[in-house]
Amino acid sequence: MYADGELVMLQQSVGISREREGQIFPILYDFALKQRTGDSASSTEETDALANILTPAQMELYRKVMQERSVRVVMQAVQK
Known about the structure:
About 80% of the residues lie in helices and about 0% in strands. The protein has about 80 residues and is mainly alpha-helical.
């Protein structure tokens, strides 16, 4: 599921604590539910919610990881 994968990505790339995991997972899960039901949730909403939990340094790392992920997706689409 999306929330699990995103949490693992955050653990590996940003280094979140167990306490923060408990705060972050519900945000990711809610975001995934909104996407599945066709709700108009945006990645900006997710980022804003995470910004309330992660430190500024962690948010910077998170943004870099998300940007790199976007570039990979575009590159894969171009190669097809």
